[in-house]
Amino acid sequence: MSGKSPGKSSAKREAMTYRAFFAARWSRFVRENFDSPEHAAMTFGVDGSTARKWWDGSHSPSGFVVGLAYQNFPAEAATTLQAQE
Fold first, then answer.
1. Of 8, 23, 36, 39, which one has the greatest count of Cβ atoms within 10 A?
2. All structural domains of the chain with their residue ranges
């Protein structure tokens, strides 16, 4: 027996799955609303390498960036970022 709670492992797996899902969704948002990673970087005040990772779908943003997206691009963020039920 590993000593780990089965619920804890399941929750971590679910969080990681959502993290990958959101990174892909964020990449779609960035690609649909900005001309380039540099354009997104300038808009959100991050460095170019961060925005390139978003563009490529390998990373998702911090909470403040998601908040800015909903504040400055409400319709686009709602359409692209919210999970479809």
1. 23
2. 42-85
